[in-house]
């Protein structure tokens, strides 16, 4: 019997949680609202939960001995106000790996430090092809030179913008535009809120079915993965670390949106050979649709952060094949199902 049949996947719950997580802006460092939401949902599911000082949620799923951490991250890439231009537009810099070509013409929300929120759009400068065609065709987009955020406010100069309370260091979150068509899920921040929803769905299955875990398992929802230090803290005694994160697709990749990928290596180093082999053996035994893949030159997971922090752990990573990483991303519900099945099967191995 396949794992997808053994561990009934509550698709409605998973997609509902994905939508709820997407509805909360959480550009890296802006964690409080989404942390509070996840703490509440975990409490509703009935698991003990703690939060880390810098931001992060850890739930105890039960079991005894040989602790395993299973993680997904809740922070999104986005922008930050670098300075205010003379015409009242915002010069911006990236938070995480957000390239200009992947956010031009996107609607945004600007969060000020005194709690105000303004809408706007990421634009080229100049911004109209009808009057600047050659320049727009031949010049690359660059945050420092020709990209800005235009506020939906009648501002004409820097003083007008500052009068709104907007200033250097304010966070800018991108619209997600989540939609589902023929099983394909399209949205910003599939990375990694889809995997966070998968992890919540696995937790729901464990609780509702009174699953007895053969080892202690901790679910870790991290808040700083996109800038490299989401899980540089781990609870005492952790032995193994499994990151749930997207598997980017591409011309030389095995990853595909209907499948779960088991990561052999990323841009930092190989994942633990024995733990990765255990995941592969589990997928084969349970009839889970999987592939092995390698992700270079610009990819890493929170498991890498824990290893680099000095923890004596084995680390591995799995996740759904996902196209257009760090842009308007796309995966498939089958990829989420297979990730869910392998996550639960490995917890119970």
Radius of gyration, taken over Cα atoms and rounded to an integer in Å: 21 Å
| Strand count | 18
Round the mean pLDDT to the nearest integer and report it. 96
Q: Looking at the structure, what is the overall shape?
A: globular
Topology pattern, helix = H, strand = E: HHHEEEEEEEHEHEEEHEEEEHEHEEH
Q: Distance N terminus to C terminus?
A: 15 Å
**Low-pLDDT residue intervals, each spanning 5 or more residues:** none
For this structure, the quaternary state is single chain
Structural class designation: alpha/beta
Count of helical stretches = 9
- Quickly count the domains: 2
Helix content: 25-40%
Largest sheet: 9 strands, mixed
Query: CATH superfamily of the largest domain, please?
Result: Zn peptidases
CATH topology of the largest domain: Aminopeptidase
CATH class of the largest domain: Alpha Beta
| CATH-scheme architecture of the largest domain | 3-Layer(aba) Sandwich
**Approximate strand percentage:** 25-35%
Name its key features.
single chain, 349 residues, alpha/beta, Aminopeptidase, Elongation Factor Tu (Ef-tu), domain 3, 2 domains, 9-stranded mixed beta sheet, 6-stranded antiparallel beta sheet, 9 helices, globular
């Amino acid at each position: 019997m396949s794992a997808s049949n053994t561990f009934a996947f509550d698709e409605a719950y998973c997609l509902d949680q994905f939508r709820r997580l997407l509805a909360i802006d959480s550009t890296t460092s802006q964690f409080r609202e989404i942390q509070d939401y996840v703490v509440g949902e975990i409490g509703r599911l009935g698991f003990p939960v703690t939060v880390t000082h810098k931001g992060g949620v850890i739930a105890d799923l039960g079991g005894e001995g040989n602790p395993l951490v299973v993680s997904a991250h809740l922070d999104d890439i986005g922008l930050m106000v670098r300075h205010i231009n003379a015409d009242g537009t915002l010069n911006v810099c990236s938070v995480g790996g957000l390239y200009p070509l992947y956010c031009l013409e996107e609607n945004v929300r600007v969060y000020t430090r005194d709690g105000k929120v303004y809408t706007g759009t990421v634009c080229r400068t100049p911004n109209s092809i009808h009057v600047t065609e050659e320049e727009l065709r031949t010049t690359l987009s660059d945050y420092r030179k020709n990209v800005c955020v235009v506020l939906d406010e009648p501002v004409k100069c820097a003083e007008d913008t500052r009068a709104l309370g907007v200033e250097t260091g304010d966070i800018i979150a991108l619209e997600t535009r989540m939609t589902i068509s023929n099983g394909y899920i399209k949205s910003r921040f599939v990375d990694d809120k889809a995997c966070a929803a998968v992890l919540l769905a696995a937790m729901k299955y464990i609780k509702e079915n009174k699953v007895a875990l053969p080892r202690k398992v901790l679910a870790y929802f991290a808040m700083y993965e996109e800038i490299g230090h989401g899980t540089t803290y781990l609870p005492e005694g952790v032995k193994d670390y499994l990151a749930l994160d997207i598997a980017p697709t591409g011309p030389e990749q095995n990853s595909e949106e209907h499948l779960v990928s088991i990561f052999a290596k990323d841009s930092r180093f190989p994942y633990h050979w024995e733990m990765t082999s255990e995941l592969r053996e589990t997928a084969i035994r349970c009839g889970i649709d999987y592939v092995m893949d390698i992700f270079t030159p610009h990819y890493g997971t929170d498991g890498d952060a824990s290893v680099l922090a000095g923890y004596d752990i084995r680390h591995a990573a799995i996740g759904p094949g996902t196209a257009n990483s760090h842009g308007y991303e796309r995966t498939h519900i089958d990829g989420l199902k297979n990730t869910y099945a392998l996550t639960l099967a490995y917890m119970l191995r």
